[in-house]
Amino acid sequence: MPIDAKQPYDDQNIFARILRGEIPSKTVMETDHSLAFHDINPLAPIHVLVIPKGDYVSWDDFTAKASDAEIADFVRTIGEVARMTGADTQGYRVLSNSGKRGGQEVPHLHMHVFGGAPLGPMLSR
């Protein structure tokens, strides 16, 4: 169910629980400020989620409140994940859903890195 990305951060969301080690994940990469792991319900042969370790609800929340070091680390981690998974060799998509109309389901900023197959149109109706 889509969430309101303008609500305060919910520290019981699934990604917060993964960061605290309460829920396991299959890690692709971890840095001081970011965690990348395989999606448990992949929508493409390559489907990795990249999340900041800070308590940010959405992209606009993150870019308004995160430090320059956190932002740089997060963006670099996304690029490194594309290279590590081989998604960069034939093309990939980076996607972040934000808020109800954007289809955001977890109130923690996350980027999807998709690849490994043709991904179709950017939006479907």
What does this 3D model show about the protein?
Strand 2 and strand 3 (46-52) form a beta hairpin. The model has no long low-confidence stretch (mean pLDDT 95). This protein has a single domain, classed as HIT-like (HIT family, subunit A), CATH 3.30.428.10. It is globular. Strands 1-2-3-5-4 form a 5-stranded antiparallel beta sheet, covered by helices on one side. Helices cover 28% and strands 20% of the residues. It is an alpha+beta fold. This is Histidine triad nucleotide-binding protein. The active site is at residue 110. Residues 14-124 form the HIT domain. One of its GO terms (molecular function) is catalytic activity.
